[in-house]
Amino acid sequence: MRAAVLATLVSGVFLMAAAPAPTNDPYAYMEEIEGARAMQFANDENARSLPQLQNDPRYAGLYADALKIATATDRIPGVYFAGDGSLRDFWQDAQHVRGLWRTTSLESYRAGKPQFRTLIDVDAMSKAENANWVFKGADCLKPDERYCLVSLSNGGKDAVVVREFDTQTGQFIPNGFQLPEGKHRFEWVDKDTLIVATDWTRGEVTTSGYPFVVKLVKRGQALSAAQEVFRGRADDGGYGVNPIVLREPDGAVRAMLVKRPLDTFNAEYHLITPNGAAKLDLPTKSSVQGYVSGRMIVSLEQDWAAKGFKEGDLVDFDLDQVKAKPAALNGALVLRPTSSQAVEQVATTRNRLVLALLDNVKGQVVSLTRGPKGWTQTRLDLPADSTVAITSTSDKDDRMLVSVTSFLTPSSQWLADAASGKPERLRSLPPRFDASKQVVEQLWATSKDGTKVPYFVVRPKDLKFDGQAPTLLYAYGGFLVSQTPSYASTVGKLWLEKGGVYVIANIRGGGEFGPRWHNAGLKLNRMRVYEDFFAVSEDLIARKITSPRRLGIMGGSNGGLLMGVALTQRPELYNAVVIQVPLFDMIGYTHIGAGASWVGEYGDPANPQERAVIESYSPYQNLKAGQKYPRAFLETSTKDDRVHPAHARKAAARLKELGYDYLYYENLDGGHAAAANLNERAMRQALEFTYLAQQLMD
């Protein structure tokens, strides 16, 4: 199987009724995505803000540098194993800004001169169909992966249309499997059968906009005739039901499961049988990670005291026993991380279980094999003090592809044998900026409750500790997502080379130390996340690395919410705030876009106790007149169907009402990434770093 990022199923409670939309919000009209008033506001704000940045003499150079990096042809291709023994990747450059889905042989790739064959030219297809297609991946039928379900998004939305593609002929299959636009979840069962979760009747979705009914679809069959095999409920939380097919390396199906989310982090797993669905005896805060050597691999994000397992454990189950007695499971411990460790990824090769681990936010990969006495592990010999990610694994053998990256060393790509543990470096990225004058440190701040919080600082070796260094602090702090070192291509060229300092904060809410780090900042404890961020900010100032005049912050999505909290709670600490595709109206968030799916993270405004906490930090409700807010830069995308653009629009409208200076950019495309192609990405980055230079360097 290809590597699967550790699922973010961590603590929370079952979804409660979503809070009703506030009736006294003067900017509620912003929630109509393409409403005339909302779009006029966005266009007017773009016309006001963009010249303030694009007319800056630095902008053109920053854009040129960002575009050169984004479209460089000497990037490392993101290749992955296909079942026929080939490698495939998705590639974008200056001539193919929407991208090419391509294939090549492993032999030619290892030799350094791969001969790629184009499978789909997304630019040409978009032009031919007069559409703004964004390639969202392809799911291919094992073992040979000839037939693929290709997902295409209009402008970058999460919702996709799905078409069946034949990689041998290079053509979409006439009258093949097709799904209309929607937030589908699907898997191949065999060449003529899919298991699909979708809105079978338009609008038949959960309160957060995701499907909850699963059916089997036969080739040539109308969707209306599909056979239902599982049904959740319309008030289920999370991201919708998700079918899972466990297979042998030869493609033979061993089991079909359905994951039914109850909220953001709680879920049930059901085994699909000829007699209906049978619920598995698993904690609701757990995740089925894969299948290898007859064992179903499960990660636990809560203690399972009755079975002797702890939060963070990796456990395996004999799949035959699971199928025989789904309501009475008995597992065995695979791995128990230490207090400084976290399991970041779980993947399988033909015969091996492979894990990417963090230890004090530094990566490693271990390979495990199961024998009569249980699992034994071997650590792969890869560069230390880096982020190490499993990018692909092979079902044909025990090989895998691994990426290694750190702040100042160009990223590299490795081919490793999980059985022998021997890695071979395939590619290294050429340097994108001059890192010779930089150094990386890992420092620790003390949060309000005494918790030690690590953060990385990338700074000049000869930094004068006088508080005058322009410093950009980035953080996320949610959904078990870890912030780990990665090669700072764009930041290096657009910021570090200009004399700036770059900081990544590993605050609670993330997964840097496993589920406990995430659980510590959920719902009623949300302020711990923000207190961690403020502690890192204050530590940077106390060490005289920077000062409030020179300290800027950046974050997107959940990190955009963090930026809004920082703006309204501690504005005296910062002179620049980049708020990317944010949540902002946390009292109304459950009825905006996909917001109801995040109740397990933030809590429900309909619950009085949880509402009291949310009200204490919700940026939209906490914007006030007469404050010394720094001039903020808000960014969003009209096509973002995950975090609705209304959040950023409302924030800007309220700032305008209160008389504050701010900047606003709404990309008409781009989805949750706020950029649909490489040109748009480079533009966004150039805007951001022009703003940061104005606020922190001038």
TrEMBL record:
GO CC list: cytosol
Signal peptide: 1-18
Annotated Pfam families: Peptidase_S9, Peptidase_S9_N
Segments forming domain Peptidase S9A N-terminal: 23-426
Annotated Gene3D superfamilies: alpha/beta hydrolase, Prolyl oligopeptidase, N-terminal domain
Annotated ranges, domain Peptidase S9 prolyl oligopeptidase catalytic: 494-696
BP GO terms, sorted: proteolysis
Molecular-function GO term, any one: oligopeptidase activity
Alphabetized UniProt keyword annotations: Hydrolase, Protease, Serine protease, Signal
Keyword tRNA processing included in the entry's annotation: no
PANTHER family xrefs: PROLYL ENDOPEPTIDASE
This protein's name: S9 family peptidase
